[in-house]
Design a protein that fits this description.
The chain is mainly alpha-helical. 53% of the residues lie in helices and 10% in strands. The chain is built from 2 helices and 2 strands, in the order αββα. The longest helix has 23 residues. It starts with a helix and ends in a 17-residue tail after the last helix.
């Protein structure tokens, strides 16, 4: 198995474990105010906001990392069909 894949999986599991710990211990409500984006203040438990921020960050990171990297045509192998 690829070391990079294992490392990424362990990192995501560690961050999710931190989210679970935050959810267990941060039950008080927090108010989020973004007047230009949200029409009214959002009042949610702190753990839900942590989870939402993580989810948005994870999605943005996935979109950025998926990128549009194209492979170059000069890979050393011929694209011609041999007959």
């Amino acid at each position: 198995m690829n070391f990079k894949l294992i490392f990424k999986a362990l990192l995501i599991i560690a961050v999710l474990a931190l989210l679970v710990i935050m959810g267990m211990h941060n039950r008080q409500s927090v108010t989020l105010s973004m007047p230009n984006v949200l029409p009214r203040d959002q009042s949610l438990p702190a753990a839900m906001m942590y989870f939402a921020f993580f989810g948005v960050g994870f999605l943005v990171g996935a979109v950025v990392m998926s990128g549009g990297a194209k492979k170059s045509g000069g890979s050393g192998k011929s694209n011609k069909v041999q007959t």
